[in-house]
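hey can u check if this looks right to u? its 135 residues, i copy pasted from the old doc so theres a chance i mangled smth
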Amino acid sequence: MFYLDFLAKFATSLCYNKPLFMDTLGKLLKQYREINKLTLRHVEEKTGISNAYLSQLENDKIAHPSANTLYKLSQTYGVELETLLSAGGVIEKKEQSTPKHKILQSVAASAGTTLTDEEEKELLNYLNFIRQRDK
């Protein structure tokens, strides 16, 4: 149990490799922004993308942003670019097994164990819950 608590705390610096609860690109972008506890204005300052444009992206008014825009957001949110490119329809989604969250898996490995897909999912859900609660 100690290791799961440690992993949940450590996950604040997590680089997310897959969508949490993705329905649309806009919802995914909003989730990553909220997980990182950023406002639209903060993202604008970090990326140079106007907060009005970001809002339109999050509300699915813009369906296909440029790869450059998605690159800037992936860097800001700590998400693999491929995840956003795929969600935005810029590239086709790879048909493969679910990628592991590298940081979660490396911390688990240092504790002498591995995480199942279900444990990994639960840790990410827990992290999302904590961040939503702390708003």
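Confidence is low (pLDDT under 50) at residues 1-10, 12-21.
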